[in-house]
Amino acid sequence: MASVMIDGPVPRARAARSPFYVGVSLLIVAIVLAGFAPSFILIAVDGRPRPWIMHVHAGVYLGWLGLLVCQAVLAARGKIAAHRRVGTFGIGYAVLVWALGVYVSFFATALHVTAGEWDLDRAATFLTIPLGDMVLFGGFFSAAVAFRHKPEIHKRLILLACIAVMFAGAFRPATNATTRVKMGV
Prior knowledge:
The termini are far apart. By secondary structure, this protein is an all-alpha fold. Helix 1 (about 20-45) runs antiparallel to helix 2 and helix 1 runs parallel beside helix 5 (about 150-170). It has one domain (about 20-40, about 50-170). The protein is about 80% helix and about 0% strand. The protein has helices at about 20-45, 50-75, 80-115, 120-145, 150-170, 170-185.
C-alpha cells in the first residue's frame, strides 16, 4: 500500500457556521431591551406624552436590532445571497439610524435644558456621549460596508457598530439608578 504526503493544509468542505454571531446579536437585543424597559414602563404608567420623534427613534432602533438578528441568522444558515440582498437594504437603514441618532442626541439634550433639568455644562458633557456613539457607529459601519466581501472582517465590524449603538441601552440602568439616588427616590 502506498501513502501520499501532502504539504500544506488539507482542503476541507465548507466549515460549519458558528452560532456565535446569532448569540451575540440576541444578547445585544436583550441588553438594550433591559436597559430601556424602565423607560417604556414609565411611559405607560405616568402617561406623560413624549415627543413623536422619540417614538420614531425607538421604532427605528428596534428595527435595527431586528435587522441585526435577521442578518446574523441568514449568514449562520448559509443563506448568503439573501444576506447580501437584505444587506443592501441595511446600508440605507444604517444611514437612517445614524442620522436619527445624531438628531435625537441634540433634540433630547435641548429638551432637558429647556425643561430646566440640566444646565448647559451638563448638557455639553452629556452630548459628547451619544455623538461619540454615532461617530463609532458610522465609522465601524462604513468600514463594514467597505469590507463586505471579506466576511471575517465584515462581521466583526458590524458587531462593533452594533455595540456602539448599544451603549445607550446598556448604561441606561446605571443612569436611572444615579438619577433616583440624586432625587432621593
